[in-house]
Write a structure and sequence with these properties.
The complex is a heterodimer of chains A (340) and B (210). Chain A has 340 residues and is α/β, with parallel strands linked by helices. Chain A is built from 9 helices and 12 strands. In chain A, helix 6 packs antiparallel against helix 7. Chain B has 2 domains: 77 residues, 2-Layer Sandwich (Phosphorylase Kinase, domain 1); 121 residues, Transferase(Phosphotransferase), domain 1, CATH 1.10.510. Chain B has 6 helices and 10 strands. Chain B has a 5-stranded antiparallel β-sheet, covered by helices on one side. A 3-stranded antiparallel β-sheet of chain B has the order 6-8-9. In chain B, strands 7-10 form a two-stranded antiparallel ribbon. In chain B, helix 5 packs across helix 6. Classes of the chains: A alpha/beta (340), B alpha+beta (210).
């Protein structure tokens, strides 16, 4: 075991896409604060520069609020972590700038954290999973991964767009709008519950990889045909996309013979997806580990906790070398703490 | 008699009108709605015999299909007598091993040349019959495309399988397989595919599990 095991705290900054999050965790794995502020576009999807502008505006406030909630004085922080990639350039750079400034000002080490890895590690921490197959589904990522020979290997992933992106574009095409703080995905989910009739849509699984673009095109033309109830289209769309996800996760589970299935990412909040994975996991005598809503979407706590794991293994980064990595793959990251 | 239970289908060894047959039954999945479950089962039960037939047209021996029962999502096919290449390869003297690998490569070249991607190329899915014929089985994950990417992935998976089951001479086997492959598809195409395999390996996502 390397690194220092003295008492300490890490502040983590998440800013890969539309969320600016700050979390504070103790070296023992206690989450003391997890504050998030989201950028909501007036219309359409995320505009990277606009999102970055939002992050820069709220950064100070969110950091202050997190410190206040945690009850930790800024001088008691021992390490600063930030989401180094993958993500949108302008957004990543804003979070990185804040993190570098804090680390330099306080004279403490800086850790660059892989965003996908952080989702898995916080999921393991809060669900007490030890060695799961992970299905990570969000607006930017769709990944099936598991630990194998020193790293998290990607067993399957999307060949085109992420499932969360597919859901959002579909929802916008259907004329649905985020209301009362409910995300678009949530509104589609509520519509789908009222759906009765299944309409066949393209189902594209290639080995353990997935493709969602054909499904999106077909679902959008169904909308424009106006021959079906919107509830039925939402239902069919969701059933198709989630069955694809469950099938590839099942294939990876059978292949690796793991005993746990971890579901995380923004789309993990969907109850239908949760129930499908649970049914599948039970058939294989595996435990289903759904990450609770507070820690499944992008959040600062996951960066803080993974920052601690990295820090304990001396995986820090000098400020002058802390460039963001827009396409940083999960399977490139060293994870010496797993399997210890 | 159940002989294999996969994530998607179960294989039974049965007697059928006096013939020794393999019965491949696709499983119903509780997690998906019945309509979709049905559609997927039927689609795949149709797809597999179709590709098996196309492979024969391409000159690659595959099992004889006796019956396709869509209602039961079941395919009844010939039980191929012989040994899995997996169990043969380690026993062979070098010269014969090289000959066999070159032959395997030629056959894979024929599949790819006709746009057939096997999807699960391992030495357990190749049967060497007592008469010296090589039969390819299990086209459950197959697809039809001429894309170099798909061909590269197909061969890369084979390379990985070779390394895990025949590690002593995996590299020699793969090189010989690629020689046979080149003989069928031509130098230009083989070079493209080989470059693609290297690219796929560099991506790191298909790194060996060992």
């Amino acid at each position: 075991m390397v690194g220092c095991m003295r008492k300490g705290y890490c502040l983590g900054i998440e800013s890969t896409a539309d969320d600016f999050g700050v979390g504070i965790a103790s070296f023992e794995g206690e989450i003391l604060a997890n504050v998030n502020h989201s950028y909501t576009p007036e219309k359409g999807g995320i505009h990277p520069r606009e999102a970055a502008r939002h992050h820069a505006k709220v950064a100070g406030k969110v950091i202050e609020e997190a410190l206040e909630k945690s009850g930790i004085k800024i001088d008691n922080l021992s390490v600063i972590a930030f989401s180094q990639g993958p993500g949108l350039g302008p957004c990543l750079r804003t979070g990185a700038t804040a993190a570098r400034a804090l680390a330099t000002y306080l004279g403490i080490p800086l850790v660059g954290v892989n965003h996908c890895l952080a989702h898995i590690e916080i999921g393991k921490l809060v669900t007490e999973a030890t060695d799961p197959i992970t299905l990570y589904v969000s607006g930017g990522n769709t990944i099936i991964a598991a630990f194998e020979a020193g790293r998290y290997r990607v067993f399957g992933e999307t060949l085109d767009i992420a499932v969360g992106n597919c859901l959002d574009v579909f929802a916008r095409e259907a004329g649905l709008k985020p209301e009362n703080g409910k995300a678009l995905g949530r509104i589609v989910e509520e519509m789908a519950i009222k759906g009765r009739k299944y309409i066949t849509l393209p189902y594209t699984v290639k080995g353990m990889d997935l493709s969602f673009s054909g499904l999106l095109t077909a679902a959008v033309s169904l909308l424009h045909e106006k021959k079906h109830r919107l509830e039925d289209v939402c239902f069919s769309f969701q059933e198709t996309a989630f069955s694809m996800l469950t099938e590839v996760t099942e294939r990876a589970l059978a292949h690796t013979e793991k005993r746990e299935v971890l579901l995380t990412g923004g789309v993990a909040a969907n109850k239908r997806l949760q129930s499908m994975l649970k049914t599948m996991a039970e058939e294989h005598d595996a435990r289903f580990c759904g990450v609770p809503r507070e820690y499944s979407p992008d959040n600062g706590a996951m960066i803080a906790w993974t920052g601690i794991l990295c820090f304990k293994h001396n995986l820090t980064v000098p400020v002058e070398k802390s460039f963001v990595k827009l396409k940083w793959r999960l399977d490139e990251v060293e994870v010496p703490w797993v399997g210890e | 008699m159940l002989i294999k239970k996969g994530a998607e289908a179960s294989l039974f060894l049965e007697e059928w009108h006096g013939l020794k047959v393999i019965l491949k039954k696709r499983l119903s999945k509780k997690y998906r709605v019945p309509e979709l479950d049905r559609t997927i089962q039927i689609q795949r039960t149709k797809h597999e015999p179709h590709v098996i037939h196309r492979a024969k047209e391409a000159g690659v021996p595959t099992p004889v299909i006796y019956m396709v029962d869509l209602a039961e999502a079941t395919i009844v096919m010939e039980y191929v007598e012989g040994k899995q290449v997996k169990n043969v390869l380690n026993e062979l003297p070098t010269e014969k091993r090289i000959k066999l690998c070159r032959y395997i490569g030629e056959l894979i070249g024929k599949l790819h040349g006709s746009g057939i991607i096997h999807g699960d190329l391992t030495t357990s899915n190749m049967i060497l019959t007592p008469t010296g014929k090589m039969v390819f089985i299990d086209f459950g994950l197959s697809e039809q495309t001429m894309e170099v990417e798909a061909k590269g992935v197909d061969l890369h998976l084979l390379k990985r399988a070779l390394h895990s089951t025949h590690y002593l001479y995996a590299d020699e086997c793969f090189e010989t397989i690629m020689e046979g492959y080149e003989k069928t598809v031509g130098e230009k195409e083989a070079k493209l595919v080989l470059e693609k395999i290297l690219e796929i390996e560099k991506r790191g996502r298909y790194v060996s599990e060992r």
